[in-house]
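Now for one record:
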Amino acid sequence: MAKPIMAKATAVWLVDNTTIGFKQIADFVEMHELEIQGIADGDVATGVKGFDPVSNNQLTQEEIDKAQANPMHKLVLKFNAAATGEEKRRGPRYTPLSKRQDRPASILWLVKFHPELSDAQVSKLVGTTKPTIQAIRERTHWNIANIQPIDPVALGLCKQSELDSMVQIAAAKKAAEGGVMSDDERRKLVSTEQSLGMDTEPRMPSAIEGLETFTLSTDVADDEEDEKKDSDFTDAESFFNLPDGDAEEDEDDAK
């Protein structure tokens, strides 16, 4: 449901001029019921002048009468044709002054760990300009040597849900383009909920996959030679008992 303009002032007028319930007013102006009760008690919105929703084309008198007669009736904002298409246009994300110096670190984190995100997506997440993102991608930023990658969620520059949404959009776009993703890229494109649900068993890095059964031949030869030596000297008597051929050669030499 759309929210009326000057919601608090409208609530003040409804409390002062009607017998509509606090819950009905709270639902209409999108405030908490306790705030409406505070307005009635004089603890909230002190000094706020009431804003007449009837004369300002937000409510009809018939709608107010229905709400007063029926405590379960929900007030409906009057349709204003002139306001159609006048929704607030969302501009660049506003970043507080105290956090603006952290934007390069968050950009570097996004570029490093989510290279699939476009410049427009990164700009929307942290509220920066495309030339700055391009400079950090190409490592031509004037302070690139001192920038350390930091998660923008940890810095408070964006929400985790917003980052997950951007990652999912990037994954869908890459899948639509038919690009082949590696295992590492596929793991980067999952959301937080999916990654938390994955198995905790460690995965072998893709760079050394296939080498888990690899052994050096010299090690095998050394092992076989050690086993042979052990088998030759397990019996002391067999060490001193020479073969018949060796005994005959010794006798010939003695003659």
Remarks:
- The two ends are 121 Å apart (CA to CA).
- Residues 85 and 210 are 59 Å apart (CA to CA).
- DSSP finds 14 helices and no strands in the chain.
- The chain has a mean pLDDT of 75.
